[in-house]
Specification:
The chain contains 3 helices and 3 strands; from the N terminus they run βααββα. It is α+β, with helices and mostly antiparallel strands. It has one domain. The chain has a 3-stranded antiparallel beta sheet with strand order 1-3-2. Strand 2 and strand 3 form a beta hairpin. The protein is globular and about 40 Å long. It starts with 11 loop residues before the first strand and ends with a helix.
Amino acid sequence: MSPLVPKSGEDLLPATPVRARYGVSDMTIFRWLADPKLGFPQPIRINGRRYWRLADLQAFEARLAEKEAA
């Protein structure tokens, strides 16, 4: 099993898999974080590196899906 494969909603994903998940650049992630209307989850910083909780990303995706369905 790959170490980047999440096991639960509490798993932390580093920036590279998050960018790959959405198919975007680091600058796009930076812009999403700066836009409070978008509601992209803020990262957790560990030793200067950014990590996101899988559950937070899934909640963000669910909110986007609800907006698109409405």
